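Practice problem. Given the sequence and the SMILES for zinc ion, write out the predicted structure.
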Amino acid sequence: MNTPDDTLWPRKTGRRPPGPTMVEWAYDQILSMLMAMQIAPGARIGIDALARRFDISQTPIREALSQLEVEGLVSKIPNAGYRASPQMTRKELDDLYALRLLIEPGAAALAAERMTEEQLAALSEIQDEMGQVQTGTGIAYARFAEADAMLHHLVALGSDNRPIAETIERLHTHLHIFRFLYATNAPQEAAEEHSRIIAALLARDPEAARSAMYDHLERSLVRTVRASEANEAGQDGDAAAGG
Ligand SMILES: [Zn+2]
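Answer key:
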């Protein structure tokens, strides 16, 4: 995935070597295939097939896959390569949001007090970006999902609390996949909730930031569950965005 600014959205410590490497390139390729569902949940990932597709050796692909395994996006099959992680169950989804509801409102309150001017400026950019991506195309949604992830990461970093930031960061990659699978509508509702969060952070108002984040996550869970159930029922085209 492309990140606009690595200083604002740092890679996990120790996960990747600095600078562009073949492993990093392979990682980005495989990650975007997972996010775009070109590799379906539960599908086998052949190392040899990827090596031929990318026209590179197997070594960087193996390293990229082992990084993705640490992040829970793929799992190793003994003697048989890797498999994409299955889609989240309802229980896993509820558990994930329960944790987010515990952590992210508090992180938003801290961020309202502690965010740097640079981070606040990045928030304003996200606000502008989100205002432009409210049409219902897949690309618009992908851009929205990226801006959404950036917002939640900025809140995590802005909390200036490393355990909190690391916990939030660890949760989000999975959710990306979930969103990409189910999102078919313009994410206007989520964008409005994000606007409230950003406004509270820019105003450096901790309690407003806390409650805006809490409301957003509660509504996001409802939307995501609705989308998940619609998908399980074999419907399509009617699911709201998670955000
Ligand atoms: Zn969001």
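Check your answer against the key. The longest helix spans residues 206-232.
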